[in-house]
Amino acid sequence: MKTIGVLTSGGDSPGMNAAIRAVVRSSIYHGCKVIGVKQGYHGLINGFMDEMNLSSVADIIHRGGTILQTARSEAFMTEEGRKKALYALQIFGIDGLVVIGGDGSFKGAQKLTELGIPTMGVPGTIDNDLRYTEYTIGFDTAVNTVLDAIGRIRDTSASHGRANIIEVMGRHCGDIALYAGLAGGAESIIVPEIQFDIDNVCSKLIKGRNRGKLHSIILLAEGVGGALDIGKEIEEKTGMETRVTILGHIQRGGSPTSFDRIIASKMGARAVELLLEGKKNRALGIKGLETIDVDFEEAFNTTNKFDEDTYRLANILSI
Ligand code: F6P
């Protein structure tokens, strides 16, 4: 293997730059040429590529976003689009490709392997919704961003004696809500994986208020939907003034935490090693802080689900 390509795809996440840096520097360390593909699969189809060197990735480990930019490509979903991508890979002499992104991006990588280009998937998404790995790059940073927001909203919540709903990202996954909610001492955590009972949420709020609690924070995962309606219902049922904050894309930005930088560095470097060992079609991951890799198919089929023990704990601690 002489030339390794790298791209970021899907929603960006803090730590993607650290992963790009690891791919570029370890490829060069092992004597390979590296090509950076801009704008994910969209750029691959259109040949937006440049050779990268040690300096291309200087001063990026601490930066949010992705220097290679990213996109969600409709065209790559078609056979014609993938043929164009394959052609561009051949023109640039790319023998192996590292795709940094979420499950949709990994499905694209799997298709490229089928077309004869060995690929590796490095999990980059704030959602932490890939179940074969304990952590995805960006999740820890997003949780810390939400924690910061909880602290700020708690100040105003206590000043007014209100209930505050904070809607967080995660697509269909409740991990950001769960971990930020536990770490931030939220009164209730509402996630798509667990059926919730609005009366339980309200009764907790009333009990808290009756024993003199000034603030009330409810973390709501976006996958549940209906934040504004839930807010209205809580206000009607408890008589507490209720406000809803949708945190949105603020959760996707910012300097990555040390944890995200470290797992990004480990998985990016290991992806290159695996390509050099002649492996293909593998998804990198983290288990017990060790770097692991599994076949893409296994990654897609791993469904050991939501961390119910932690959810139970958060409920116990917020009685
Ligand atoms: O997958 C990451 C994510 O931020 C999700 O949490 C969210 O649902 C989605 O992307 C938002 O996508 P976009 O930035 O395209 O609006």
UniProtKB/TrEMBL annotation:
Belongs to the phosphofructokinase type A (PFKA) family. ATP-dependent PFK group I subfamily. Prokaryotic clade 'B1' sub-subfamily. It comes from the Bacteria. Catalyzes the phosphorylation of D-fructose 6-phosphate to fructose 1,6-bisphosphate by ATP, the first committing step of glycolysis. GO terms for molecular function: 6-phosphofructokinase activity; AMP binding; ATP binding; fructose-6-phosphate binding; identical protein binding; metal ion binding; monosaccharide binding. The active site is at residue 127. It catalyses: beta-D-fructose 6-phosphate + ATP = beta-D-fructose 1,6-bisphosphate + ADP + H(+). Residues 4-275 form the Phosphofructokinase domain. PANTHER family: ATP-DEPENDENT 6-PHOSPHOFRUCTOKINASE (PTHR13697:SF4), PHOSPHOFRUCTOKINASE (PTHR13697). Its cofactor is Mg(2+). Its main location: cytoplasm. This is ATP-dependent 6-phosphofructokinase. Substrate binds at residues 125-127, 162, 169-171, 222, 243, 249-252. It comes from Alkaliphilus serpentinus. HAMAP family: Phosphofructokinase_I_B1. SUPFAM superfamilies: Phosphofructokinase (SSF53784). Its EC number is 2.7.1.11. One of its GO terms (biological process) is canonical glycolysis. ADP binds at residues 21-25, 154, 185-187, 211, 213-215. GO terms for cellular component: 6-phosphofructokinase complex. Pathway: Carbohydrate degradation; glycolysis; D-glyceraldehyde 3-phosphate and glycerone phosphate from D-glucose: step 3/4. Homotetramer. Pfam families: PFK (PF00365). It is found in: Cytoplasm.
